[in-house]
Amino acid sequence: MKRLSWLAPLPLLAGCKPVVLAPSGDVAARQAELLVQSTLLMLIIIVPVMALTVWFAWRYRATNKRASYDPDWDHSTKLELVIWAIPLMIIICLGALTWVGTHLLDPYRPLDRISAEKPVEQAPLQVQVVAMDWKWLFIYPEQGVASVNQLAVPVDRPVEFTLTSTSVMNAFYIPAMAGMIYAMPGMQTTLHGVFNAPGEYQGLASHYSGHGFSGMRFKAVALDGAGFEDWVAQAADSGRTLDRARYLELEKPSENVAPMAFASVDPQLFQRVVNMCVEEGRMCMAEMMAYDAQGGLGLPGIANIAALTDPDIRGAARPVLGLPPFQVSGICSVEELEQMLASAGTTEPAAPRDLSPIRGRGLDAPQGIFGRQPVPGQLTQSVPQDGADQNL
């Protein structure tokens, strides 16, 4: 009995389910097929090598006097052909299989079918996902509701997830539905998937993200059409409102959060999360980049960080490029600049600066993309050099 004691833990594995190899969604099923096919191709060379290793060890053991002994043998063309040709063919097959599967199962690619027997007949359900510390927020823009740590979707309808994160990179994964996709702060990723069978499935964060990572799990519920409408109605009856102030409270780190629903959601909330401007008075990244694209703010525009009054709100200090947090409160006009210089005791404002591209002295401006003329009303400045004006 003592020899069989190591078998005691085996009953604990009875509840395990190979979800990756037995999924409930078409995308995950095709990924499982790719995994199985790749494994079988590799076994073509792995199994013979392992078997030959045992056979050679037994065949040429020291006690076997009948085995041939040829210490001067060093080359066999036929053996070299077998050793190199078979693995090369397997690598070519694996490469072709992986290339096709990678493009066919691209998470950004809209689904081309519901299952092997069903084509796509409905527009995908839009679900916006925010990875928090340490919980998941799901926003349904079409239905106007939201939920925390619970995802409900209809069966046999494509789902388009749009994902982002609040603080650190995380990974969104529903093994029974589709592959894994990363969610990153200040960025937006996309994942397409579908459930082909009703049920309750496990969703999780598959990338370590801190102390509460182990509890960052949620239930993904696949419902029929009527069941999904009932779920939306229940969420709408919850009475909670997810506005910007409530979101900032929800964003604070918390562990093992029970599922909750919100009856209404700020329609701009997700885009503000992506642009890191949920807080009042903070400039959105899209606005920063628009200014930078026009050459307006430069480095101040890159590092514009609003100082928050509540130090407990995550992201209170988000320095960029090592600069301390600060906020650009305004951009002065030409008239305001003159007033500022006058108040500082300077009567003559700075000469306008020519923003046209640099060119050699005495040469004509080149034509084409660099031959742009100054925009009317654009600020220009002439810088003296060697007694003459040189345009910069």
Question: Descriptors for this entry?
Answer:
392 residues; alpha+beta; Immunoglobulin-like; 5-stranded mixed sheet; elongated; Cyt_c_oxidase_su2_TM_dom; cell membrane; respiratory chain; transport; membrane
Overall description:
It is built from eight helices and 15 strands. The protein is α+β, with helices and mostly antiparallel strands and 392 residues long. Among the domains are: 72 residues; 150 residues, Immunoglobulin-like (Sandwich). The strands form four sheets. Strands 8-5-1-2-3-12 form a six-stranded mixed β-sheet. Helix 1 runs antiparallel to helix 2. The protein is elongated, with a radius of gyration of 32 Å.
The percent of residues in helical segments reads 25-40%
Named at the architecture level, the CATH assignment of the domain at 125-274 is Sandwich
Q: Mean pLDDT across all residues, rounded? A: 79
From the 3D structure, determine the CATH topology of the domain at 125-274. Immunoglobulin-like
What is the name of the CATH class of the domain at 125-274?
Mainly Beta
Total count of strands: 15
CATH homologous superfamily identity of the domain at 125-274: Cupredoxins -  blue copper proteins
Structural class, please?
alpha+beta
Structure described in brief:
The protein is an alpha+beta fold and 392 residues long. It has helices at residues 26-59, 77-104, 225-236, 244-251, 269-274, 285-293, 299-302, 334-343, and strands at 125-131, 136-140, 145-148, 150-154, 159-165, 170-173, 181-183, 189-193, 199-205, 217-223, 241-242, 260-262, 264-265, 382-385, 388-391. The strands form four sheets. A six-stranded mixed sheet has the order 8-5-1-2-3-12.
